[in-house]
Amino acid sequence: MLNIIKTRKARYLSAAAGAAVVLAGAAALAPSATAADVPAAKHRVQTFELVGKQTSAAEVDLGKPGVSVGDQRVVHEDLYRHGVKVGDHGTVCTFTRVDPAALQCLGTFSLPEGQFAAQALLHLPASSSVDVGITGGSGDYRTARGFVRTVPAGETERHFTVHLQR
Prior knowledge:
Elements: H1 2-20, H2 33-37, E1 45-60, E2 72-81, E3 84-97, E4 102-111, E5 114-123, E6 130-137, E7 145-152, E8 157-165
Antiparallel strand pairs: 1-2, 1-8, 2-3, 3-4, 4-5, 5-6, 6-7, 7-8
């Protein structure tokens, strides 16, 4: 019975990680007031692709044994652009509901130009792609807005299409 609970929890958390690894940061920053004051036509739009390859993952079982509210999935990935490592990405997803499952996911993308954060509330089972809102950033991404579309590409790899407005 314990193995069934562990397997069910692992499936839930793996699905959450697949959808959520795209997400950015526990320290998500709100867009600056100056960004909100600039007319939309003056914002520069940039789209680029990243591939995330998982380097570590862990489940944190809080409260009741098995899947319960407050349990977390923590994932770290190396980020690649055109086959070259360009940064890294970390995500934390927390169960806010178990049946049906819902997770609050926060993550941070760290690239040479700066960092940007994204977050989403995910409902499981997750769809084949998930759009996650960019909530802000630092460096060249300090006025970042937009979204990241994530698509699982196996158990430990994700494809991200970043739609960035700054």
